[in-house]
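Human: I would love a firmer grasp of how sequence relates to backbone shape in proteins. Could you go through the record with me and say what the backbone is doing? Here is the record:
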Amino acid sequence: MPVSLVRKLEQFAPLSDTEKQIVQEAPMRVRHVEPQHDIVSEGDRPVEISLITDGFACRYKILDDGRRQIISFLIPGDICDLRALLFRQMDHSVAALNGCQIAIISHQRLFDIIEKYPRLALAFWSDSMRNAAIYREAIVNLGRRSAYARIAHLLCEQWIRLEVIGMTRDGTFELPITQTDLADATGLSLVHVNRTLQKIRADGLITFRHNLVTVLDPQRLQAVAQFNPTYLAAAPHTVAATHPEFLRDVG
């Protein structure tokens, strides 16, 4: 069932047919989470992992005064609570941005899989390293990039991540986030986000309506975002297929 997880893990290690089958058959059950509801909450102690098979979510923290900081966005193939596999307790929350379908895999089942198939363990570890790289870019985004570059970088990141799992078409991809979500992810005010999006549109870089983003000028969008996709560890042949300009960055 979780084909998107297979496609993501194959970025890091070539998987055999048996390994792919093991991943696809791993979920024990499926649940649906409504928009704006938590998939897992800070302080929870899950004994199962929650894998997104359909829909979009975000990792976030809530400050004492009620303000929210979105840490990252999650897409199909992402695991919401892998941290709890080793550290037991969640130190942040994950909320559905639209209706999410979640595949549930017990911790013991996952331990059994990675013990028997070490290449899958390496792929999961590599995915965790990639997530750490995404967080590093988020720190740079919040600390040093302009508002224009912050939003452009976020759009580039989601575009490439969705392309790897086959969820883009002709430069268009679904991104069901509000301007409030963008503000919480980029540390900007709602007014600043609105003005910046208008400027990015007016500059002919993107269109963004009804939760659909179309990238009109990939080279300029990458340039203004100071975006280098190597931190995403996307398979070079996947990115190069539709974006040869990225080959310069991948090397």
About this structure: Residues 38 and 95 are 4 Å apart (CA to CA). The longest strand covers residues 48-54.
